[in-house]
Each structure stands twice: as structure tokens, then as C-alpha cells.
Write a structure and sequence with these properties.
alpha+beta, two-stranded antiparallel sheet, 2 helices
Length: about 100
Amino acid sequence: MKTIYLDEAYCCHVSAEGTVQAVETDLFDVLCGGAVSCYRLIPAGQAWTGPDGRVLSGPFVQAVVSPDAIQRQHEADEAAHLEELGALIEEIYNEDMEDIANV
């Protein structure tokens, strides 16, 4: 469960800056923070009228832009970070093995 913030158009944000309301939800738990901003969330009991006059009533979730590219970049960044950590662990292991061999 995480807190997201909605602006006047019910677009989601990860920080409260410039937003209207905070909402607790588990809908975005599997997404990186940047991908959250790709969605519009209309909570139950609320409604939003789009620029075309169409009324969307909650509960409703809509992708405003495709989150795929943001999520893929986040996953690539995480994979690169894990590779760096793996290399560091291997380096420390090898140094420790050298120290043990020299005792």
C-alpha cells in the first residue's frame, strides 16, 4: 500500500507538490515511482469530466501515457545496479581469498 497524490485532473503523482488530495492504494505497488505519473485514478464516489465532456466515475484507473518505457528503464537501471553490486561482491571475495591464502 502506498500513498499517491492526485491533481485536479486526477492524474497521479508520487509527491504532494501541486496536488489536491492524497490517496492510499495498492494499485501501483508493483510500479516504479516514475510510472505512477502515467495514470489517472478516480477514487470511488468521485467523478471527473474530461475536456471532451465525457464523465468518468470512480473507481476508475486509466493510463494517460504508456508506462512501459518508464518501467523498462527502471528495470534496466535496477539490473545495472545489481550487476555493479555483484562485481563488488566478487572483488571483495577474491581479495578475502587472497588474504586467506597468504596466512
